[in-house]
Each structure stands twice: as C-alpha cells, then as structure tokens.
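I'll show a typical protein example:
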Amino acid sequence: TYFTSDDGLPSDSVRCFAEDEKGNVYVGTSDKICRFNTDDTIQILDVNITFAKAMEVYQDMLIIVDNKGGIHAVNCSTQAEIDNSKTKDKFYYCLASTSKGLIAGTETGELFIADISEHTVSVKEQIDIPGNQISAVFEDSRKRLWVALNSDFGYIDSNGTYHKMHYDGFDSSIVSFHEDYQGNIWVASSHYGVMKLSESTFVNLF
C-alpha cells in the first residue's frame, strides 16, 4: 500500500518518520506534518511547523527538527506546540531518544540533553564534541553514544569520554547508525556506502 498527496499527504516529499506508543505513525513532509492513525487514516497536525527533517516521540511529545535548524515539541494528544524558547539560538541537525533523555545535535559540535517539563523544552546537560556539524547520534545497547560529524565519527563511553574512530575511505558523510542483534554497529554514509563494525573476541592482556 502506498500513499501520495492524492490520498491526503501534505506533500509527496517525505523526509522522516516517528511512531508513538499507540502505533500512530507521524510523517514529516516538505510541507506539513501528518499522522497515520492505526486504521491508516491521515490527519494533518494543526501546528505551525513545516519541512520536518528529523522527528522523535519522547514522553508523549513529538519532537521535531525543521530545515531551518529549529527544534519544536508538540503534544501528541492535544497537538499543542510547546514553548522552545530555552533551546533557541542554535541550529539543530539530528535527534535521538536515549536512556539519558532526548539528545539533539547542533551544527557547532554540541550535544544537548533535553527534557520536557512544565510545558517547556529545557536543556539539562551539554556535551561538546571536537569538530563541527553533528549529523547523527545513536545509543547502542551498551549505552555508548555514537556521534557522526562532518569529517569523522566516534562514540562517547559511559565515563563521558569521546573516542574518535578513523577508517581510510570511510570517514565522512555519516548519516545513520544501527545495531544488529549480535551487537555489531552498522554505519551508513551518503558517499561511501555502509560499514559494519564488529568487536574482536580477543583481549589484549597487556
């Protein structure tokens, strides 16, 4: 089954998805944001946000990054937009829902751990990464935060230390991370294809 603007989509240009706990799927288009209910009926959200490029559902809130780098929070139940004044003056690129909270990456190499409280998006912690634009962030099963920058990528361990990774021929344009059932980390690049990182079963005793 496929859906187009003829079926009620705000636009045929779709950039991102998110799903809430009830099974509703939110679709970010180059125009408005809409929601596919569990019966596949389409409902356009009545909020003043266009061109969503990243979305996450967090604490019954739909968190959205638009193409102007703004971050927004919309109540999934009432569709009321939440005040985001405490997260302004930054250009955001990506989102991830993690055990630490909601994480947003900026164009200047900062990770903001945000929370939703008293109808406001607030920043509770900031992590600075050496480099610039953060294009992707991902938490694996060992609670490591994988971070993609313009020219490299790496991970932050449980102690908060950043470990830079470098592989010749695969060191830029990282757009996504994924962990499979064996704990391997898959890294996708918009220029170099895909790479699988597997940890060695051997340990250096010295």
